[in-house]
Amino acid sequence: MSNEPTLRKNTTQRANGNVILDVKDLRTYLFTKKAVVKAVDGVSFFLRKGETFGIVGESGSGKSTTALSLLRMEPKPAGRIVGGEIWFYGENILDKNEKEMRKIRGSRISMILQDPQTSLNPVFTIGNQVSEAFTVQEGRKNNQGTLLQRVIDLLRKVNIAAPERRFSDYPHQMSGGMKQRVVGAISISCAPDIVIADEPTSALDLTIQAQYLRLLREIQQTTGISIIFITHDFGIVAKMCDRVAIMYAGKIVEHGPVRAIFNHPLHPYTHALISSVPRMEARVERLFSIPGQLPAPGEMPAGCRFAPRCMYADDRCHKEYPPTFGGLSEHTEHTTDCWRLEDPTWEPKSYSR
Amino acid sequence: MGTEILLQVNNVKKYFPITKGLLFVKTIGQVKAVDDISFTIGESETLALVGESGCGKTTTARLILLLEQPTHGEILLDGKDIYALQGDDYRRYRDRVQAVFQDPWSSLNPRIQVRDIVAEPIIVNHKLSRQEIRDRVEKILVDVGLDPVHADRFPHEFSGGQRQRIAVGSALISNPQLIVLDEPVSALDVSIRAQIMNLLRDVQKQYHVSYLLIVHDLATARYMAHKIAVMYLGKIVEYAKTEELFNNPVHPYTKALFSAALPSHPDIQREEIILHGEVPSPIDPPTGCPFHPRCPMKIGTVCEKEIQTLRCKDNTEHWVSCGLYAEGRPEPETGRQQ
C-alpha cells in the first residue's frame, strides 16, 4: 500500500462486496424560522450484509437524523432531505413514495429506539403489539392460533422467560431490560435486512446492557442481518462494530474499520475524543480534555467544523472544508476529512496519558 | 491522602414503608433501600459508590444531605452525629456539605442570574457585605473556568459543560468539607466530560474537599475515586481502594459488573460473565446474600441462608461480603485479573 494519501473524488469506487445499503452525499436540513440547520450535511457511507456499522457522535452531530433519514422519517415538518441518494438493493429510497416506504419500514429496515418505555404502547399487551407487526405487513390472513405461536416463538428467541404467560402482560409489568427485548423482538419480527439501533442500551443498567448486546449478536449470527448502531459511546463501538463512522456537526469526519480507528485515529477530533475517555482497564494519570464546546446549530463554522477546538487548525481550516482523504494507513477503507493529511507523513501527536 | 476521617457512616439502614389504604393507613411492607451499610470518607478523599439502579446509592446520598432520616444507624461528620445537629450547628452543616447533581439543565434555576446562583449558599448562611460576596463569586467563577464577565447572564445562555461548572462553583463557594456528586458527568457530552472530571480533581486539591461520588460508569469511578464501594440491593458487597479493587475484584457481583463494562479497545477480550435475570425487588429481597439468586459461584446454604457481613480480606483494607470468604472457609483462588 502506498503511503501517499490520495484525494478520493469518486465515491462510487469504494463500495465492494455485498453492499446492501449505499448512502451518498445525504443532506437533511432543518428549516426553522431563525435559520436553516444543516443537521446532516453531505454524509456518505455504506453497509455490507451481516456486518455491524457504528455511527458515533455527540449531541447535535446529526447521527440520529441520519438514521431517521434512512427510513425517510426525518423530523417533519422542519426536516427535509434536500439532497443525496440512499441505494438499498439497487433502488434509491429517496425515489419511493409513502406507500412504498411503508413496505420497507419494519419489514426490510427496522428500528430500535433508545427508550423502550416510550416505544411500547402502555394500553396494549405485549402479545398484541408483537403480533401487530405480522398483521400489518402480511395482512390478516394468519389465523389466530398460528399467529399466537409465532409471537411466542419470537419472544422466546429474545430470551423472555415463560413467553406463554408474558404474552398477555402490559409493558408496565415488565422491567426495562425485558421491554427492550420485546422492542427487539418487534424489530426482527419481519426478518428485516437492516436493523437500525439508536442508543438501544443507554437506558439500561450495565449487566442488563451486557445481556442485551449479547442477544443482538446472537440474533445477528443466526439471521445474518446488518446492524447500524447509533451511539455516543466508544465502548459499544469497540465491543460490537466492524466498521465505524465518526460524526461531528453534521459531517462524517473519519470512517474506517474499527481497529484502524482505535489504533490509528487520524482526525484530530477522533484522536482527541478517544484520548479523553477514561478507561476501566488501566489507571490514567490525566485525561486529555478537548477545549471549547460543540458548535451551536445554525452557527456552523465556515470551514472545518472542528477547527475552533482543534490544536492543529490553521487559516485554511477555518475558511474551507477539507476534502476526504482515503487510502490511509494499511486500510483502504479508512478515510478522514482533514487538511493536515495533505502531508503524507502527518500524524496527530499522542497526548500524555 | 485520607489521614483524617471526615465522614463516618455506621450501620445505616433506610427502610421506606409500603402503605395501604387512604384513611386507615396500614404498613404492609418495607422497601429496604439501604440495608446496614458502613463506610468512611477521609479528608480530601473521593469515595465512589457504584452499582446499578435501585441499589441504594442515591438514597445513601440523600441520607448524607439530611434529606432523609435513617431508620437505624448514625452518620458522623467530624465525630458529630449529623441527625442530632440543631440551630447554628445545623446551619453550619449546610455550609460544610454541598451537592452537585446530574442534570445541569434542571438543577439551576432558569430565572436567576449566575451570580446569584453561585452566591446563594453564602447569602443564606453568612453575613457578608455585597462587595465581599461579589469578590467571592468572581474568584470562584475563575476557579471553575468561567469568565466573571458572564456572571450577569442566565443559565440558558450557557452550554451543558458550563452549567455544570456553575453548579460546581455554587457548591464550592461556602468552602465545604464534603461535596456529594450525583452522576456529575453522565448528562454531558463525551468531549465535555473530561473537562468536568479534570475540573473536579483540580478543585479538590485546591480546596481540600472530599467527594462522595455516585456513579454507574466504572471508568469514571477509576479515574476519580480513591476508594470504591460496590453496592447491590441496598448493601455494600465490596469496598476497597480503587487500584486494589480493579486489580483484584473478589466478589462475584463485582466481577460480573466489571466483565459487563464496555471495553475501551476492540482488542480487549474479557471473560464474559453474563448474569441471568434481573435485580430482585427490594420489597422482597432474597434471604441470605442478596446476590445469591444470580450468583454463578454460590455455595448452597451458606449463601442462601446466612447474611454475610463485610469482612476484611487479609488486612489489605479490602472488604468483601460473600459466602466464599466466610469465616473459617479456606480462601478461594481469585485469579487476579488484569
Order of helices and strands of chain B: EEEHEEHEHHHEHEHEEHHHEE
In CATH's first tier, which class of chain B applies?
Alpha Beta
Average pLDDT number of chain B? 88
The CATH homologous superfamily of chain B corresponds to P-loop containing nucleotide triphosphate hydrolases
The SS-based structural class of chain A is alpha/beta
The order of strands across the largest sheet of chain A is: 1-12-13-11-10-4-9-8-7
Contiguous helical run count of chain B: 10
The CATH class label of the largest domain in chain A is: Alpha Beta
Strand content of chain A is 15-25%
Using the 3D structure, state the CATH architecture of the largest domain in chain A: 3-Layer(aba) Sandwich
As for the number of domains of chain B, it is: 1
Task: Give the number of domains of chain A.
Answer: 2
Walk me through the structure.
The complex is a heterodimer of chains A (353) and B (338). Chain A is 30% helix and 22% strand. Chain A folds into 2 domains: 6-108 and 190-342, P-loop containing nucleotide triphosphate hydrolases (Rossmann fold); 109-189, no CATH class. In chain A, strand 10 and strand 11 (251-257) form a beta hairpin. Residues 1-15 of chain A have low confidence and may be disordered. With 353 residues, chain A is α/β, with parallel strands linked by helices. Chain A has helices spanning 63-70, 98-104, 116-119, 126-138, 144-157, 163-166, 176-188, 206-223, 234-240, 258-263, 268-275, 315-319; strands spanning 6-7, 19-31, 36-48, 52-56, 79-88, 91-92, 109-112, 194-198, 226-231, 243-248, 251-257, 324-326, 335-337. The longest helix of chain A is centred in the middle third of the chain and has 18 residues, at 206-223. Chain B is α/β, with parallel strands linked by helices and 338 residues long. Chain B is built from 10 helices and 12 strands. Chain B has helices spanning 57-64, 87-96, 114-125, 130-143, 160-172, 190-207, 218-224, 242-247, 252-260, 300-305, and strands spanning 5-20, 26-42, 46-50, 72-77, 80-81, 97-100, 178-182, 210-215, 227-232, 235-241, 311-313, 318-320. The A-B interface holds A 58-59, 175, 177-178, 205-211, 214, 232-239, 258-259, 262, 272-273, 276-281, 283-284, 286-291, 293-294 and B 52-53, 159, 161-162, 189-195, 197-198, 216-220, 222-223, 243, 246, 256-268, 272, 274-275, 278-279, 338.
